[in-house]
Structure formats: C-alpha cells, structure tokens
Write a structure and sequence with these properties.
The complex is a heterodimer. By secondary structure, chain A is mainly alpha-helical. Chain A has one domain: Orthogonal Bundle (MetI-like fold), CATH 1.10.3720. Chain A contains ten helices and no strands. In chain A, helix 3 crosses helix 5, helix 5 packs across helix 7 and helix 6 packs antiparallel against helix 7. The radius of gyration of chain A is 21 Å and the shape is elongated. The termini of chain A are far apart. By secondary structure, chain B is an alpha/beta fold. Chain B has one domain: 3-Layer(aba) Sandwich (Rossmann fold), CATH 3.40.50. In chain B, the strands form two sheets. In chain B, strands 6-7-8-3-9-10 form a six-stranded mixed sheet, sandwiched between helices. In chain B, strands 2-1-4-5 form a four-stranded antiparallel sheet, covered by helices on one side. In chain B, strand 7, helix 6 and strand 8 form a beta-alpha-beta unit. The chains are: A mainly alpha, B alpha/beta. Chains A and B meet through helix 6 and helix 7 of A and helix 2 and helix 3 of B.
C-alpha cells in the first residue's frame, strides 16, 4: 500500500468547497465575535454589579467548557426553545460565541492595562464617556490587541473542524466524505492538514499587513511594557 | 460685582468611612494664584479630583464663574452628566503624571479636545493649538509623540491642552514632582509667566519658593481640612498652628533662605 495523492486530487472540488465554507464560517464568527466582544467589554466597565457578574459567568462558562460541548449545547439546545435552524447556522453561532469570549478577554485585558489617567484626562477635558472611549481608549487598545486577536482567530479556524460533528459541510467534513469514498484516510487528511495550515498562515499575513499600516499611523511605542511586547507582538523583528 | 472663578462650599469626599476632603470651602477670585500646600495624604489631590468632578463630592457645592458645577446644596438635584461635561472645559486640569495621550502627536493632544468637546473646526483648533505651542515655545515639537518629548516639554503640551479649552481656572497637581532639579526651575518660571497673564490658578506644590513669590495666597491642608490660609509669607513664617509650623520648619530646615 503506497502513498497515492492522485486518489484525492480527483476530489479537489469537494476540498475546495469545504475550504471555502470553513473560511466563510470563520469570517462570520470573526466579525460577529468581535462585535459581541466589543459589547461585552464595554458592558464589563459599567459600574453595575449584576451586569458584571453576568458577564463574568458568561466568559467563565464559554472559556471553561470544550468547544464541541458548546456546539452540541447550541445545536441540540435551540430546538428546546422552539428554534429549529440548519446545522450550518447553529455551528456558526456556536463558533461566534466561542470567539466572543476569547476576544472579549483580550479587549478587556488591554483595556485594563491602560492607565486610569488616560480615562481621567479625557473626562476632565469634557469628553463624554463615549467620546473618551472613541478618541482615547479604542485607538490605544487596537494595536496591542491585534496580535492576540489574530492568535485566537487562528485557533478558531482550527476549532471550526469540530463543526463536522454536527454535519456542517466544512473542510473536515468534506475530508471525511472523500475518505469514505476513497478509503485513503492518510492521503485525504494529509491534504486537509495542508489546507488547514494555509488558512491561518494567510490570516497571520493579513494581520501583519494591518499591523504595519496601523504602525505607520501610530508609531508611538504605546503603553505596552517591553516584556508584554515580546510576547504579544507577532513580528519579532526590531522596528 | 464679578463672580469668583471658583467658589467651593463645604465640599466633602469620603472613601469608605475616611473623609479625604472634609468640609472644605475655598473661593478663588479671577486672576488670583493660590498655592495649595500640605503633607502627603492631606487631601490636596482629592480636593482637585473633587473640583474636576472626577470624584463626585458627597456634600457641598462648587460654582465656576458663578455657574453651579456639582451638587446644588444638600438634598438638591444632581446635575446631569451632560451639564457636567459641558462645564468641565472651564477647569483646566494638569495632572501630576500629565496623562497625555500617547497615540496622538503634541499638536494632536491640543487639537482633539477642541474638536470633540468645543466643536471647533479643524482650522480653528489648529490655529489655536499652534498659537499656544508657540507661546509655550514648543512649536518645533508639534508633530512629536509624547514619548519622544522630555519631561518639561510634555508638561508644556499638557498645559497647552488645558489652555486650549479657554478655562476660567487652571488646576495643577504637583507640576514639578516628577521633574529633575533643572526642569523644576523651568516649569516654575512657566507657571509664573502664566500667572502674570492674569490666569486664575490653583497649584498644589511643595515648592515653598514658588508659593512665596508667585502665589497671592497660600492654603494649607491637613487631614482633609483647610487649617490655615493667607498671604504666603505670613503662613510660611508666622502661622502658629502647630501642624503648619511643624511642616514648614521641616521644609525650611535644609534650605537656604530664598
């Protein structure tokens, strides 16, 4: 029994379809997750204990249980509420929730790392809370949170393979189908692995480009400590 | 009769059951320069945070140029956040650690609040900012980031940022505490220059020489209260309150007379 990649090459449209769906799911979860995370982050800074407790519970639960369980809970739980949705939708919702918790932790951490004085000086000069967030806080959070957000997006891309468990036709699922037809599991998953490797690599490249662009606009060293920079910044070259 | 720039009455601020500011009343006339002196932890910084409403006082009233800012009397209605935000530019606050915005250039720091808060156009904000930077002699640094500036230069940017809002009153929280000896003189000279333009100022300071020569009045705080106030030289040399005496004796023990 030899390694025969030709077996899988015949099925390239199916791999392509799977890869395209993976990218689409991740893109939706990325945008949805960021919006949700921004709302969670903003709410977590509101001085209202019950709201804060609710957010902490949400973050702890979503981060504390395995992704596949979140998928099952959303997929099999929604019919209980009388909502019947296709697996693709419930799967994407699950991934969005998953992403939102991790994104929110990044945004919260970078927000908390800003000195209180930044907020004070914005408010003292007469900015409303919204204006202070927009003109002083967000521009300073954006750049340092970009690398960890990218890391989580790459993790999320890989985790999306779990959606095959509820028959979402993404890359892993297509791999399983092709494998069933060809009985060549090694060749199939070798190709699947290759495609999975390419997607996060593209995301990382896109982020680097974005980082450079932001870097040009804001060449201030920012408020990160040198140690934090070493671990949080993707591009290790001296700038 | 013209209204005083600042009239604070019976201000009290508690953290837990500790009164950081305890029934403080302070009136500052237009053009007056007041030095606020006292030992560490006496409530000077808390008083400034009260006056800017960064910490809302539990009791008392504040009026800026005769306009109420803060609680309107005991049990009276709290002002809306909007009213407070609208009045805040009237108080120019220069923080102890300045709190410049690192993502904006020097001129950006001076322009942004004018644009956002006062609704000035890009053009108006730029003209005003350039004039102020020129007056503070840092025109050539307009496009540098705060991180690229020295301590004294940053101080000037922070002052320009506050002045750009056309405040009725400037508050300085220990403006020289973070500076080395050479810069202290430079910043004090700058404050003296600002005072000579008729700007109303409340300066928290440990610089006795500055209090003596620039301030019109010295206010001494201890334990959250004002325990002495009057012409600086009188307080520094003749005030008999034991806490005040002890403070200045220690301060002056190692100094050559100025």
């Amino acid at each position: 029994m030899g390694f025969d990649p030709n077996v899988v090459l015949d099925y390239w449209p199916q791999f392509l379809e799977g890869a395209a769906l993976t990218v689409r799911i991740v893109a939706v979860a990325l945008v949805g997750g960021l919006i949700l995370a921004a709302i969670i982050t903003a709410a977590s800074f509101v001085r209202f204990a019950p709201l804060k407790a609710l957010i902490m519970v949400y973050l702890a639960v979503v981060r504390g249980i395995p992704f596949i369980i979140i998928v099952f809970l959303v997929h099999y739980g929604m019919p209980f509420a009388g909502i019947r949705l296709p697996a693709l939708t419930t799967g994407t919702i699950a991934l969005t929730l998953f992403a939102s918790a991790y994104y929110a932790e990044v945004l919260r951490a970078t927000g908390l790392a800003l000195p209180q004085g930044q907020w004070d000086s914005a408010r003292a000069v007469g900015m409303s809370p919204g204006e202070a967030v927009r003109h002083v806080i967000v521009p300073q959070i954006l750049r340092p949170s970009l690398p960890p957000l990218t890391n989580y997006t790459m993790t999320m891309t890989k985790e999306s393979s779990v959606l095959s468990a509820i028959t979402v036709g993404e890359l892993t699922y297509q791999g399983l189908v092709v494998q069933g037809n060809t009985f060549a599991p090694f060749e199939v998953f070798f190709v699947v692995a290759g495609i999975y490797w390419i997607i996060p690599a593209l995301i990382a490249r896109a982020t680097l480009a974005l980082e450079r662009k932001l870097g040009m606009e804001e060449n201030a060293p920012g408020t990160l400590s040198p140690l934090a920079r070493r671990y949080l910044v993707l591009d290790r070259r001296e700038r | 009769m013209t209204q005083p720039a600042l009239a604070a009455k019976d201000l009290s601020l508690a953290f837990g059951d500790h009164w950081a500011v305890d029934r403080v009343s302070l009136t500052i006339a237009r053009g007056e320069v007041v030095a606020l002196v006292g030992p560490s932890g006496c409530g000077k910084s808390s008083l400034l945070r009260c006056l800017t409403r960064l910490e809302p006082p539990q009791r008392g009233t504040i009026a800026i140029d005769g306009e109420p800012f803060g609680r309107v009397g005991e049990g009276g209605a709290l002002q809306s956040r909007r009213t407070i935000d609208r009045m805040r530019p009237k108080i120019g606050m220069v923080f102890q650690d300045l709190n410049l915005w690192p993502h904006l250039s020097a001129i950006g720091n001076v322009m942004r609040p004018q644009r956002v808060v006062l609704g000035r156009t890009e053009e108006e904000a730029r003209t005003r900012a350039e004039a102020l930077l020129a007056r503070l002699r840092i025109s050539e640094l307009a496009h540098k980031r705060p991180a690229q500036l020295s301590g004294g230069q940053r101080q000037r940017v922070a002052i320009a940022r506050a002045l750009a809002m056309d405040p009725a009153l400037m508050l300085f929280d220990e403006p020289t505490s973070a500076l080395d000896a050479e810069l202290i003189g430079e910043v004090l000279a700058l404050l003296k220059e600002l005072a000579s333009t008729g700007m109303t100022m409340l300066v928290v300071t440990h610089e006795i020489g500055f209090a003596r020569h620039v301030a019109d009045r010295l206010v001494f705080m201890d334990g959250g209260r004002i325990i002495a106030a009057g012409p600086p030289s009188d307080i520094i040399e003749r005030e008999n309150h034991p806490r005040v005496r002890a403070f200045f004796n220690t301060m002056l023990a190692f100094r050559t007379p100025d």
